[in-house]
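pinned: reference chain
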Amino acid sequence: MRYCINCCIHLLPNDLHRQCFRCRGPDHNNQKCPVCRGENKIPLYTDSKQMKWLAVLEVRTDHCESWNGFFCLRKGKLCSLMFGLIIMTLVMVSYILTGAKHGLLLIPSPFHYGAFASNPSLMDNESLSDMKDYYQPSKMNISYVKDYPSIKLIIDTITSKIEFITRQRPDLEELRKQEPHMFSVIPNKFLPNSKNPCWYEEYRGNTTTDPYATNSYALYSKRFRIIFDYLRKVFWNHLYHYKDKHYRLRCLPHFYIIGQPKCGTTDLYDRLRLHPDVRFSAIKEPHWWTRKRFGIIRLRDGFHDRYPVEDYLDLFDLAAHQIQSVLQSDAVKEHGKRSNIIIGEASASTMWDNNAWIFFYDNSTEGEPPFLIQDFIHAFQPNAKLIIMLRDPVERLYSDYLYFASANKSAEDFHEKVAESLQLFEGCVLDFSLRACVYNNTLNNAMPVRLQVGLYVVYLLDWLTVFNKDQILVLRLEDHASNMRYTMHMVFQFLDLGPLSEKQEALITKSPASNTRRPEDRSLGPMLPTTKAILRDFYRPFNTKLAQVLFDDAFLWKRT
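pinned: its structure tokens
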């Protein structure tokens, strides 16, 4: 290892060291320079190589390379310091956000999610005492408990604006003007020898014509194509031939399971399917009355071509074929008997979803829809029967959230979404009627959770403006779960279904429950007790009115 004696710069083996001012002056001579010739220098060996002792005694730090090393060292320390500060800042921000959300901070955070001022003097003592019976506040819920009084003010405002005003039923001629094609397809009278509403329609196609070629259900959904492939194969076998013309039997449902979502409609549907006299549409939930006839597949995807009523009627062809077989049997022809087979349809949106009206009906009154789904169903089927399955609206909303939320599901997230939805609903009822807000498409799409679906009495009263009370059967999921045999007997009696054998009844009542909560959702646990108290306050006036209409205090859901 070689070093320059004057500046103590480490030299590489091939380095001539021409940059040193002391070693390379203007008149420098390597032969005459005692430094370069190595005279009077004491050799020192480092790393087993010769080194000049004077190099150790005359160490210099003013060379450019030594300064470069110094600055590199300082830059390195500065970068490390800045990087450390950034990491520390990110950790602190994460702590603040997480701590604020879960109530872990010792001081209030400006990032607190529930932007409601805390005022203990406004606390509802009765509701809080109910909470204390089954809940001990924990660190995870402190911030949400503080939200309660301010959200209670919002609920009080909503409650003060509640008015159950009877809507005006539209005239039949007004309905005809809105849906002329529908009225041209569906007759006003049905076959007398069929319990189900059916009629014969002339078929003008030939043997090479595909009767389902333009059916929108088959075109837009692959899972329905198998059903329609089968219908194509058997279609010609079920045509009725009379005076050189072909007729096909068309049918509408005899009864509708109209709601509500997450209230056990799927379980009721699955059990009713097992009855020998009951048939359903080819798919459980066509959503034709509420969405497909307006061209809505998913509202967020915009509008598609409107599904004509013929596409809807195609869904009942399988059942119509069976009814036709009974109608053509000797028992019916010779003895005057009739077909007792009935068809059902189970779209859980039928009771409440009128969101599309704003895009098609212009002559609204103060933001309220001039026409509702039930107006059209009643126009064609004044004797239709309607089944409604309800549950505690508080639990229904949480189940709805767990089922439809896609990510980041938690009791805390649900609480925040409830608070935001209540604020939006309050803003609407301050300016519009209750009915206008319930059927407000913009509001319903803006609310993070579907609060409006649990306002059962608002929808029920609107259905009662067109249908008689004895045409509507209202059940509770809680009763269905605790005594399934009793509720199914109520349904059989309501639909005038024939008696069953013990084996058939056992098959229907003892089947496992359908569409229960998914295991991953059950692991999230119940909603926060504060959220439950808030929702109970919100739904209480609506449940009270519902119990009055139905003359049944069970619909108060005081203890579920």
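why pinned: The first helix runs from residue 34 to 37. The chain has 25 helices and twelve strands.
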